[in-house]
Amino acid sequence: MYFLLFSNKLNDPGTIWSNVESVQLNDKTYNSQRLTFEANTGDAPDDWYIVYSDPHTHLIDYVAYIVTVNKSTEAAEADPHAIGYSNYKMIDGIPVAHNWEFYEWSSTNGLGKVIGDATIRSAKFVKTSPNTFDVPDGFIEK
Protein backbone atom coordinates (compact mmCIF):
# COMPACT_ATOMS: atom_id res chain seq x y z
CA MET A 1 0.00 0.00 0.00
CA TYR A 2 2.86 2.41 0.78
CA PHE A 3 4.10 2.27 -2.82
CA LEU A 4 0.64 3.03 -4.16
CA LEU A 5 0.51 6.16 -2.02
CA PHE A 6 4.23 6.92 -2.20
CA SER A 7 4.02 10.14 -4.21
CA ASN A 8 1.42 11.47 -1.78
CA LYS A 9 3.61 10.68 1.26
CA LEU A 10 6.67 12.63 0.19
CA ASN A 11 5.98 15.57 2.48
CA ASP A 12 4.71 13.65 5.50
CA PRO A 13 5.90 14.90 8.89
CA GLY A 14 9.28 13.41 9.77
CA THR A 15 10.64 13.13 6.22
CA ILE A 16 14.22 14.28 5.62
CA TRP A 17 15.34 15.04 2.05
CA SER A 18 18.82 15.38 0.60
CA ASN A 19 19.60 18.04 -1.99
CA VAL A 20 18.65 17.29 -5.59
CA GLU A 21 21.45 15.73 -7.62
CA SER A 22 21.61 14.93 -11.30
CA VAL A 23 22.47 11.22 -11.66
CA GLN A 24 22.60 8.53 -14.32
CA LEU A 25 20.44 5.44 -13.92
CA ASN A 26 20.59 2.90 -16.72
CA ASP A 27 21.70 5.46 -19.33
CA LYS A 28 19.19 8.20 -18.47
CA THR A 29 19.77 11.35 -16.43
CA TYR A 30 17.43 11.86 -13.49
CA ASN A 31 16.91 14.26 -10.64
CA SER A 32 17.68 12.21 -7.56
CA GLN A 33 17.07 12.72 -3.86
CA ARG A 34 17.51 10.48 -0.84
CA LEU A 35 14.59 10.27 1.57
CA THR A 36 15.15 9.27 5.20
CA PHE A 37 13.08 9.74 8.32
CA GLU A 38 13.32 11.30 11.75
CA ALA A 39 13.44 8.87 14.67
CA ASN A 40 10.06 7.42 15.67
CA THR A 41 8.54 8.22 12.27
CA GLY A 42 6.32 5.53 10.77
CA ASP A 43 6.67 1.78 11.15
CA ALA A 44 10.30 1.59 10.04
CA PRO A 45 12.19 4.88 10.50
CA ASP A 46 15.47 3.26 9.40
CA ASP A 47 14.14 2.65 5.87
CA TRP A 48 15.48 4.89 3.13
CA TYR A 49 14.45 5.65 -0.42
CA ILE A 50 16.25 7.13 -3.40
CA VAL A 51 13.78 8.87 -5.68
CA TYR A 52 14.59 9.21 -9.38
CA SER A 53 12.34 11.74 -11.10
CA ASP A 54 12.27 12.77 -14.73
CA PRO A 55 13.84 16.27 -14.94
CA HIS A 56 11.30 17.34 -17.59
CA THR A 57 7.99 15.90 -16.34
CA HIS A 58 8.99 15.72 -12.64
CA LEU A 59 7.16 12.39 -12.44
CA ILE A 60 8.76 9.62 -10.41
CA ASP A 61 10.23 6.95 -12.70
CA TYR A 62 12.03 4.83 -10.09
CA VAL A 63 12.40 4.53 -6.34
CA ALA A 64 15.20 2.47 -4.80
CA TYR A 65 14.56 1.38 -1.23
CA ILE A 66 15.31 -0.86 1.71
CA VAL A 67 12.82 -2.43 4.11
CA THR A 68 14.01 -2.78 7.70
CA VAL A 69 10.86 -4.22 9.27
CA ASN A 70 11.93 -7.36 11.22
CA LYS A 71 15.59 -7.01 10.16
CA SER A 72 18.62 -4.85 10.79
CA THR A 73 19.56 -1.93 8.57
CA GLU A 74 22.68 -3.85 7.52
CA ALA A 75 20.61 -6.87 6.44
CA ALA A 76 18.18 -4.64 4.55
CA GLU A 77 21.01 -2.77 2.81
CA ALA A 78 22.44 -6.11 1.66
CA ASP A 79 19.24 -6.68 -0.36
CA PRO A 80 17.97 -3.34 -1.77
CA HIS A 81 15.27 -3.16 -4.43
CA ALA A 82 13.68 -0.61 -6.72
CA ILE A 83 10.27 -0.02 -8.16
CA GLY A 84 9.67 1.51 -11.58
CA TYR A 85 6.54 3.56 -12.20
CA SER A 86 5.20 3.96 -15.76
CA ASN A 87 2.07 4.40 -17.84
CA TYR A 88 0.89 7.44 -15.92
CA LYS A 89 -2.77 8.31 -16.45
CA MET A 90 -4.56 11.37 -15.13
CA ILE A 91 -7.29 10.67 -12.58
CA ASP A 92 -9.15 13.79 -11.47
CA GLY A 93 -6.11 15.85 -12.47
CA ILE A 94 -3.61 13.68 -10.59
CA PRO A 95 -1.05 11.50 -12.43
CA VAL A 96 -1.22 7.88 -11.26
CA ALA A 97 1.23 5.22 -12.48
CA HIS A 98 -0.70 2.22 -13.76
CA ASN A 99 2.31 -0.07 -14.33
CA TRP A 100 4.93 -1.00 -11.76
CA GLU A 101 8.00 -3.19 -12.08
CA PHE A 102 10.05 -4.36 -9.11
CA TYR A 103 13.81 -4.77 -9.57
CA GLU A 104 16.94 -5.87 -7.87
CA TRP A 105 18.97 -2.68 -7.39
CA SER A 106 22.43 -1.54 -6.31
CA SER A 107 23.97 1.89 -5.96
CA THR A 108 26.86 0.90 -8.23
CA ASN A 109 25.00 -1.04 -10.96
CA GLY A 110 21.54 0.54 -10.87
CA LEU A 111 18.58 -1.56 -11.89
CA GLY A 112 19.03 -5.31 -11.99
CA LYS A 113 16.66 -8.05 -13.07
CA VAL A 114 12.91 -7.65 -12.83
CA ILE A 115 11.56 -9.59 -9.85
CA GLY A 116 7.87 -8.68 -10.06
CA ASP A 117 5.26 -6.43 -11.59
CA ALA A 118 1.86 -4.93 -10.90
CA THR A 119 -0.82 -3.32 -13.05
CA ILE A 120 -3.50 -0.92 -11.88
CA ARG A 121 -6.51 -1.54 -14.09
CA SER A 122 -9.27 0.45 -12.49
CA ALA A 123 -8.51 3.39 -10.25
CA LYS A 124 -10.71 6.25 -9.16
CA PHE A 125 -11.05 8.66 -6.31
CA VAL A 126 -14.23 8.31 -4.30
CA LYS A 127 -16.18 10.93 -2.43
CA THR A 128 -16.32 10.38 1.30
CA SER A 129 -18.67 11.62 3.94
CA PRO A 130 -17.75 12.59 7.51
CA ASN A 131 -18.73 9.09 8.70
CA THR A 132 -17.20 7.02 5.88
CA PHE A 133 -14.63 5.45 8.19
CA ASP A 134 -16.74 5.22 11.34
CA VAL A 135 -16.86 1.83 13.03
CA PRO A 136 -20.31 0.36 12.27
CA ASP A 137 -22.79 -0.39 15.04
CA GLY A 138 -22.48 -3.94 16.29
CA PHE A 139 -18.84 -4.31 15.20
CA ILE A 140 -17.07 -6.99 17.22
CA GLU A 141 -13.28 -6.86 17.49
CA LYS A 142 -11.63 -10.26 17.79
TrEMBL record:
It holds the Pfam family DUF6503. InterPro entries: DUF6503. This is Uncharacterized protein. It comes from Winogradskyella endarachnes. The lineage of its organism: Bacteria, Pseudomonadati, Bacteroidota, Flavobacteriia, Flavobacteriales.
